[in-house]
Amino acid sequence: MSTLLYALGRWTYRHPWRVLVSWLMLLGIALGFAIPHLGGTDNSFSIPGTEAQEGIQLLDRSFPQASGTSAQLVIVTADGDRIDEEPYTGAIGDTVAHLEDLDGVIAVTDPFNEMVTGMVSDDESAAIIRLQFDGQSTDVSDETKEGLEQVADDLRETLPEGSQVAMGGDLFSTSVPALSLIEAVGVLIALFVLIVTFRSFAVAWFPLVSALIGVGLAIALIFVATAFVSVSSTTPMLAIMLGLAVGIDYALFIVARHQDQVRAGVEPEESAARATGTAGSAVVFAGITVLIALIGLGFAGIPFLTTMGIAAAVAVAIAVVVALTLTPALLGFAKHRVAGWGHGRKRRGMPLPGARRSAAQEARTSDAGVEPNDVVDAPLPSHTPTKRTNRWVMLVTKHPIVTTIAVVLTLGVMAMPAASLALALPNAGQQPESSQARQAYDLTAEHFGPGSNGPLIMTGTIVTSTDPLGLMADLKAEIEKVPGVKEVALATPNETADTGLIQIVPETAPDDPATAQLVRDLRALAPELEDEYGVDLKVTGFTAVGIDISDRLGAALLPFGVFVVGLSLVLLMIVFRSIWVPIKAALGYLLSVMAAFGVVAAVFEWGWGAELLHVDRTGPVISFMPIILMGVLFGLAMDYEVFLVSRMREDYVHARRAAGGHATRGGRDLAVGAVRSGFTASARVVTAAAVIMFAVFAAFVPEGDSSIKPIALGLAVGIAVDAFLVRMTLVPAVMALLGDKAWWMPRWLERILPHFDIEGEAVERELSLADWPEPDTTAVVVGDGVAVRADAGGSAGEVVLFDDAAFRAEPGGTLIATGDPRAARAFALTIAARLAPTDGRLRVAGHLLPERGAWVRAHVGLALLADADDRVPALRRALTGKASLVVIEGVDALDHAERDQAAALLRDAAAALAASDKRLTLVVTGRTESAALALLADAHRPDVTSITLRSATAQTTPTAEVNA
């Protein structure tokens, strides 16, 4: 992948206008499709398979006038007046008539109707007009909502001074989030951090431009999607928040790498390609982790949350693609100006400080102490000044035990409020006090009790009853006995007397945990009522749906947490080839998450700093805050972990090489030194990235929507804690405690885990070996110190299939490799890129292995003759397609007749290639040279070189290790 990104970075750098115009055109087209759907978001919540949803579906079928969304108009008299006297009674009667005339209103409950109770307050100072609509909140037209507000305004003007009128209810329980100028402050802070980091006004804009284009495209696509799926109004805001944060950070990593390289003297075009191939690989890894975590939101089984996760994942995916393509294109506009203040243009060709992997990859061949996939460094060039070690990491690593205890205790204290974190769906009580829906909510709670804002409904089929009215009266009496029920406002059958409806007013608010307990108690009572009255009642309504969603989300947290932590362990094992580093990273992530939960609970539950953050009402936070925070923070935490610890690993392996290739008695000192040097090299960019992330998320807190506020605060705190306390304090302390044991991994696990080129190792190795074995080499096959080893399994340890092989074959020549059958087959598979070399340098057909293995496998013919039933056809298949390099394994297996046929095939293949000015090159393996030489003589191939493969013949290797 890194080599592909390297080529992509070079192409986009060379064609900046094409790339920029293409993205702008794509953005324009997407906006054109999105504009007609800008109002298409949906705040209705449903959760299939729950009792509340089943109850709503029953009402839809048999009691439609009670199944839709509702609203209520609250009227409070002036001091000393009574609501049941004029002018209030007359004005309320006129208002009821006006409301009945509005489109979509199917029922209006007059508070003075003798058939209903609870619509007039006990002190006669307030009344509620309740409205029922056809369909859910998203089905109510804007014209109807405007009509409701106009009726409320007219009533307000009619009533005496000092009276209050407010329109609220379920229809207005959620607000549509909107951007404000405060969010722009986060972007300005990000710009300031970028200017300080890059010391350049021009370059500082690049990550912002990249992120804004990506966010614009993502939001446009989300609004287009509203034409096909239900998308909540919170989704675009979450996508903006994430898209901005990761878009800026991903571009920052690429630009920072590019700037360092240009300052070191690398030509800008080459540097842009390298930065895209190296830092771009880390960007892809970071993006993949965020994507997996966001898509994992589907664990909860809630459609709107799954849609939200997919939409946010789309925003992150676009941010990755834009960063990888538009960022190097923007660098193409800057050329040498990217160096920034105080850095003049460097001499062409000056090597990059640290050469991070280049020379180190060369040194792999003969150093048996270096692991197969270790990343090693070359010594710093003589012209490069020695970096001063960061003072912070020196302090942390000198006192690792104290530091570890202090950080864990601090985060533990921060996490304590999380025990009181309550979850609920948003309601009007969380809206700003200036909102009419919030005023209606507060007036209702004040005069009718908090439960009047979230009535519950019990419904069931009563078709078998011979006395439906008496049955409903009996059920009402039973339900009123349940603790937590303030009153039963309505208990009635429908017009056909086949379905009953009971409207219950709780004593507590909709988002109060006691209301959730009441729902559970009513559901526990339902079987008893069914036994006694023969009616299967279901608890439903807007409040019950919200409680079911919160319960489902709470139940999903543990499996989602196991998924995320397990994923982090596997991914980091793949990246770092270590056991302890992933465990430490996962535990650090859990500490960050719990600390973030604790701060959110302290602010939104306990009220600490609530006024400062413009939190209008304390109480439960939005239900999906924890699962979203866990998913997003996971990806971002792994990003910082990889960026910091990968450099520590590189420095450690280089130091170990310099000490003789083994973790000797000074292994611990080498490991601690690598922690310090790796931290020093990475801290600047990680700090900048974390500050930008924090600024973007924190900007959504002061004036953000009530649904976004706790998510934004949790992400801001989580990022700050994870970056500065966990990754930049706890990580180096724990790494210092572990010493060289931090990089231990069992060989069996090393063998089965795949390899991920997280820092563009393939690019750096190709660059370092670009002139190997010599500039413009003509060699078709060339190797130096090539070895292939494998785990023998059990206690047998490692087996050497072949070791320290040096060879070369020119166009038209033949290379014979002889040895025992295991070594011969392993060598053939290695040249044909079916096995990866463990050590050494190997170039086949101009391509380095194993980095270019896919190309070699597609262009090199391979004939495995030793175990083939039809050996001549196997050779014929290898020679088809006019491959100019063919590997023939097990030539000893050919008998005399087969050898004649094989020689004829080789002559024909050589002649066919010669007709197109190509030459056939062969690599032949076998037990001895004689069979190979006989075949080559018959095939008229005089140009032959031979090598003898050296292997550990005393051990037995499983066949699978050397099988194709």
From TrEMBL:
<feature type="transmembrane region" description="Helical">
    <location>
        <begin position="713"/>
        <end position="738"/>
    </location>
</feature>
<feature type="transmembrane region" description="Helical">
    <location>
        <begin position="277"/>
        <end position="302"/>
    </location>
</feature>
<keyword id="KW-1003">Cell membrane</keyword>
<feature type="transmembrane region" description="Helical">
    <location>
        <begin position="308"/>
        <end position="331"/>
    </location>
</feature>
<feature type="transmembrane region" description="Helical">
    <location>
        <begin position="178"/>
        <end position="198"/>
    </location>
</feature>
<feature type="transmembrane region" description="Helical">
    <location>
        <begin position="556"/>
        <end position="576"/>
    </location>
</feature>
<dbReference type="InterPro" id="IPR004869">
    <property type="entry name" value="MMPL_dom"/>
</dbReference>
<feature type="transmembrane region" description="Helical">
    <location>
        <begin position="681"/>
        <end position="701"/>
    </location>
</feature>
<feature type="region of interest" description="Disordered">
    <location>
        <begin position="343"/>
        <end position="383"/>
    </location>
</feature>
<feature type="domain" description="SSD">
    <location>
        <begin position="208"/>
        <end position="333"/>
    </location>
</feature>
<dbReference type="InterPro" id="IPR001036">
    <property type="entry name" value="Acrflvin-R"/>
</dbReference>
<dbReference type="InterPro" id="IPR000731">
    <property type="entry name" value="SSD"/>
</dbReference>
<feature type="transmembrane region" description="Helical">
    <location>
        <begin position="588"/>
        <end position="609"/>
    </location>
</feature>
<keyword id="KW-0472">Membrane</keyword>
<feature type="transmembrane region" description="Helical">
    <location>
        <begin position="621"/>
        <end position="640"/>
    </location>
</feature>
<protein>
    <submittedName>
        <fullName>Membrane protein YdfJ</fullName>
    </submittedName>
</protein>
<feature type="transmembrane region" description="Helical">
    <location>
        <begin position="205"/>
        <end position="231"/>
    </location>
</feature>
<dbReference type="Pfam" id="PF03176">
    <property type="entry name" value="MMPL"/>
</dbReference>
<feature type="transmembrane region" description="Helical">
    <location>
        <begin position="237"/>
        <end position="256"/>
    </location>
</feature>
<dbReference type="GO" id="GO:0005886">
    <property type="term" value="C:plasma membrane"/>
</dbReference>
<keyword id="KW-1133">Transmembrane helix</keyword>
<dbReference type="GO" id="GO:0022857">
    <property type="term" value="F:transmembrane transporter activity"/>
</dbReference>
<feature type="transmembrane region" description="Helical">
    <location>
        <begin position="401"/>
        <end position="425"/>
    </location>
</feature>
<dbReference type="InterPro" id="IPR050545">
    <property type="entry name" value="Mycobact_MmpL"/>
</dbReference>
<keyword id="KW-0812">Transmembrane</keyword>
<feature type="transmembrane region" description="Helical">
    <location>
        <begin position="20"/>
        <end position="39"/>
    </location>
</feature>
